[in-house]
Protein: Vetispiradiene synthase
Amino acid sequence: MGETAWKDINEGMLWPVRPVSTEILTRILNLVRIIDVTYKHNQDGCTHPEKVLKPHIIALLVNSIAI
Structure:
């Protein structure tokens, strides 16, 4: 996703009055985040999750930071 698209999405989240509810915009933003992680650097995370997504899952669940 291009940098301008991220700026548009983030700017839309900051509007005080929105044409769409905050809940719907939050779901769309989270979906865009998942798609960005899954297909980052032109790699297919759905076809090869062990190569693309596994490091993210390990970092999140196994090597988490204790607070």
In short: The chain is about 65% helix and 0% strand. The chain has one domain: 19-67.
